[in-house]
Specification:
Blueprint: E1 29-31, E2 35-38, E3 48-53, E4 60-66, E5 74-76, E6 78-80, E7 86-88, E8 110-112, H1 116-120, E9 124-134, E10 139-148, E11 155-160, H2 170-187, E12 194-199, H3 202-209, H4 224-234, E13 239-244, H5 262-280
Helix pairs in contact: 2-4
């Protein structure tokens, strides 16, 4: 069958009405450490019978109803004992990934923000970001910088890039730097200013400036999640321009750094700082955290 992936496939029997129940519910009983939820036998709206652990005892008792499952619940089954005591058939074991509850936040970044108040008092900001990637070491890092148009209030951030090694490349590092700068400006209420953000990755600039909707084809690309997440933040900015600047201009001639245009100076500084961050970084042994703004994140073991 040569039907394209994106075409709808007609069904012999049309689907009926959707029930208002939580997605991915396949089992009758779920449990957390202290609560069990049992689905009703009949199909229909999501109403769960709730069971709560009885103090220090090793059994559960009925305690009302719930309309949602408990966070981090595991499938199980249960048996009823005497006097209304219920016993789960499986222990509750959490797979202890250190990053499991960690959000993809700027807490991982090394940020120098002594000039933040100067940035807040300026109407116009100039920013730049750059990524660095070492295919032999399988490591990547980024650096971003923000200043006023008269080059005051320098604020910068650096961090290694933690993602599935299968998807780790120079584009990922570039996008991570762009997203880091954009996310920082949004968090610190700089998003209503006139901002020009420079990057030497032209394809990255074009991707973020594109208004194309994501399709099943584009979502298969390795960087689709970080592009989605970044564009979602960009919607809150009132006057953000992302522009290309030629990279590595310090390799072309011996012009003093101070004599170069501001975007070029920032690009050279970002490049050096990203390389330094990469050299000093340690390959992560933990799985990459979920990325806010991406619609879904699938983990297979340690890989995203």
């Amino acid at each position: 069958m040569n039907r394209a992936k994106t075409l709808n496939i007609p069904l012999d029997t049309p689907l009926g009405s959707w029930y208002n129940i939580e997605r991915h519910i396949e089992y009758d009983v779920y449990r957390s450490q202290n609560i069990m939820c049992k689905r009703p036998v009949e199909e229909g709206p999501s109403i769960f019978e709730r069971f709560e652990i009885a103090g220090e005892a090793n059994y559960f008792v009925r305690s009302g109803i719930r309309t949602t499952l408990v966070h981090a619940s595991h499938p199980t089954s249960m048996s009823e004992g005497r006097e209304g005591h219920f016993h789960p058939d499986h222990q509750y074991n959490i797979i202890d990934y250190p990053n499991e509850q960690q959000r993809d936040s700027e807490e991982d970044e090394n940020i120098e923000e002594d000039g933040l108040e100067i940035l807040r008092n300026s109407d116009t900001l100039i920013a730049c970001s750059d990524g660095s990637y070492d295919p032999l070491e399988q490591k990547a890092a980024f650096n971003w910088r923000i200043v006023t148009d008269d080059e005051k209030g320098l604020t910068s951030g650096s961090a290694p890039v933690n993602t599935n090694p299968k998807y780790l490349n120079s584009y990922r590092a570039e996008f991570a730097g762009l997203r880091g700068a954009i996310r920082y400006m949004k968090k610190h209420d700089l998003h209503r200013k006139a901002i020009t953000l420079y990057c030497d990755g032209k394809s990255c600039v074009d991707a973020l400036n594109s208004n194309n909707e994501f399709t099943s084809e584009t979502l298969e690309k390795a960087e689709s999640d970080i592009i989605q997440a970044t564009q979602k933040i960009m919607k809150d900015f009132s006057n953000l321009k992302i522009e290309w600047v030629k990279g590595h201009q310090d390799d072309d001639d011996d012009t003093e750094l101070s004599e170069r245009p501001l975007p070029v100076r920032l690009n050279i500084q970002c490049d050096l700082a990203a390389k330094e961050c990469l050299r000093n970084s340690i390959k992560p042994s933990k799985r990459a955290p979920h990325m806010e703004g991406a619609k879904a994140t699938l983990y297979l073991g340690m890989n995203m």
